[in-house]
Amino acid sequence: MDLEDAHPVFPSATCHLVEESARRPACGSDAPLSADATAAAIHQAVALAIRQDVGTLAARRRAFLRRCWPYLGPTQRRHVTDHCWAVRTAVLRLGAYLALPEATLDLLGRAALFHDIGKCRIPEWILAKPAALADDERAVMSRHAAIGASIAADLGAPHSVVRMVAGHHRRADSGADPLAPPATAVLTAADALASMMSDRPYSPARTAPQALAELRRQAGTVFDPAVVDAAGAVWGGRRVA
Ligand SMILES: [Fe+2]
Ligand SMILES: [Fe+2]
Asked: Which ligand is nearest to the CA of 196?
């Protein structure tokens, strides 16, 4: 399995675009990502430029994040790095328990590192909002999966990884996505576990039993029941990462 890169280290920088977006009082009619339009343009240009480079996918991901870093707020940074690494840890443990083939584990690990990279283009003030999102804000947030898939594709990620990133919030009861590998359900559950067991702007971290209980409550609707059973067996009350 390709263990990819070590945890990236980035320089600190002034997040002027983030400060601008943080001053926005609400999500306007042209809300989608417009507050970060400049940053979005830069990210897109960087992604296209990086695609021309030789090197591993991990190296291109690191280079992409390094170039985006000055434009990201603290919550955006946590989502695109620490959270993705926590989900990678969770997804590999869950996948190993499910005895997934080594090649599938490799793809899952890569998809985990990319799954929320699209949040670099979701305004910081939405990601950091200490309350439930309004409908229009939730609509903006929901775009991060498609944006992340686009970034992953631009960086040359395998098609399976791109489809996993695109579908990582797809509900189990919405039917299987014919374009997404079945293992996407593992990423969805691991992501939810890691998220629930971390402090979030609108709620403190849940304990492992609480997070697993929530997973079980939504088994068959949001989450694949077999994956939920596996999560219970793997963690049984311990921290995910
Ligand atoms: Fe996500
Ligand atoms: Fe996530």
From this structure: 2
